[in-house]
Amino acid sequence: MVSFDLNLRPALWPAGADAHPTLWDALTLADLVKLSAEEFAYLATDGEAAVLERLWQGRTRLLVVTDGDASLRWFAPDAEGELPAYRVPAVDTTAAGDAFVGSLLYRLATQAITPDNLPALVGELPRLHATLRFAAAAGALTVTRPGFVHRDARRRRSPGLHGDSRLNPPRTPQLPAEPLPDFRSADVLRQHIADTMAFYHPHVIDPAGGYFQG
Questions:
Q1: Predicted TM-score (pTM) of this structure
Q2: CATH no., domain 3-8+21-163+171-200
Q3: Euclidean distance between CA atoms 209 and 163, whole angstroms
């Protein structure tokens, strides 16, 4: 399963550069694509339908579009829908998207979802909606606390937004006060990326050493 979370940062692209060709090179290789509403609009220079058509021409079989506390939208080649977002007091939106994607991939992994059976999941709306709600709950929980939410808290606490009032709020970990790594070394940068992936996405590391998420 190849997942791609766009995480578009226009300020990181050279001034005047058109990011679309590079982005599409990656997008068409993903089975699952996650976009924010702003990223969807950025790609939709010729309309949303054109974006969807181009995705379906590649490997993509599920597109998920998040929009803060507005409804979550999902699209597949033969179906589409939306789910209401959880309304929570937002304290810090840092890593909300990472929590959403990591939890979504975790739920897909626990259901043994592969590119071959992903369309079958989309065809079972109750199961698809439960999977997306789990991810949305994790993202919502993340914004209720400042800074990073502990990686285990998302899995333990997500059911709380589904009605379990016995659960306590997730705790924010105390990160070590260490200087930033020297990113001039490629090895250090690669290790930093691996550490970050392990922190945010503990359940989506391929046992063979690759990442499920792009």
A1: 0.70
A2: 3.40.1190.20
A3: 37
